[in-house]
């Protein structure tokens, strides 16, 4: 696939930055975006970063994003955002959750939007589902099939407690690729669980063929996993996504 990815606002602290609460939208959107780009590239896809950091206003940011995005012929355009409006700073044991916007009912991005919502839901978030909006600038002016992902709420402590930018990126990548990258299975016996991201790192145990692990981070050669309360790094070629 060929994919555009962009964080939807100027950086935090600049004009036209994103929402701010417990989380800061512009900062976290860039973390998710960077991790998502790496994951998609690791899986062999062509990805363009169309994020804008020098917009003079909200309309200028949006126009510059579209100019960058429409310069590429892609299969999908993905705008990363964070939601606001919950105003829950004390916690009510309910999270705001994830939603994905598409331009119309018959948008080609619908299948990706549905899968992203399902995969982020696996992280524990409420699935708010697909939203139709033909007035959002990026969706309206993109020449490619476009989706706008509202990862979770910046002003909900329950969302913030669940949030991890790498896991969010893995969930979004899973939705785009139609795979479950959040979990993996060990493909051979006596695979070393390393303390850090290196074959020379201290071993903290061994994994058996068929062991199922939760994926926490995806890097070029290693994957950080959790199994039976242990967390460590496994050489990538010994894991297969479920």
UniProtKB/TrEMBL annotation:
UniProt GO BP: cell wall organization; peptidoglycan catabolic process
Sorted alphabetically, which keywords does the UniProt record give? Cell wall biogenesis/degradation, Hydrolase
Q: Which ranges carry the MurNAc-LAA domain?
A: 66-177
Q: Which domain of life is it from?
A: Bacteria
Q: What SUPFAM superfamilies does UniProt report for this protein, alphabetically?
A: Zn-dependent exopeptidases
**Gene Ontology terms for molecular function:** N-acetylmuramoyl-L-alanine amidase activity
Q: Name one Pfam family in it.
A: SH3_3
In its UniProt entry, what is this protein called?
A: Bacteriophage endolysin (N-acetylmuramoyl-L-alanine amidase)
Q: Which organism is it from?
A: Anaeromicropila herbilytica
């Amino acid at each position: 696939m060929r994919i555009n990815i962009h964080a939807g606002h100027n950086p935090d602290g600049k004009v036209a930055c994103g929402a701010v609460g417990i989380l800061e939208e512009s900062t976290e959107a860039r973390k998710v975006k960077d991790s998502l780009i790496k994951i998609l590239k690791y899986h062999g896809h062509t990805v363009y970063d169309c994020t804008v950091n020098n917009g003079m206003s909200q309309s200028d940011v949006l126009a510059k994003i579209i100019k960058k995005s429409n310069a590429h012929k892609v299969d999908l355009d993905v705008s990363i955002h964070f939601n606001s409006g919950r105003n829950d700073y004390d916690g009510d044991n309910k999270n705001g959750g994830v939603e994905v916007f598409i331009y119309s009912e018959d948008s080609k991005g619908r299948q990706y939007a549905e899968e992203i919502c399902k995969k982020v839901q696996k992280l524990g978030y409420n699935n708010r589902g697909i939203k139709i909006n033909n007035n959002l600038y990026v969706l309206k002016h993109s020449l490619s099939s476009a989706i706008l992902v509202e990862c979770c709420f910046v002003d909900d402590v329950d969302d913030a407690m669940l949030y991890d930018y790498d896991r969010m990126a893995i969930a979004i990548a899973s939705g785009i690729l139609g795979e479950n990258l959040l979990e993996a299975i060990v493909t051979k016996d006596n695979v070393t669980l390393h303390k850090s991201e290196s074959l020379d790192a201290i071993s903290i145990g061994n994994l058996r063929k068929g062991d199922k692990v939760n994926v926490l981070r995806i890097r070029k050669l290693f994957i950080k996993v959790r199994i039976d309360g242990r967390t460590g790094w496994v050489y990538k070629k010994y894991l297969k996504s479920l």
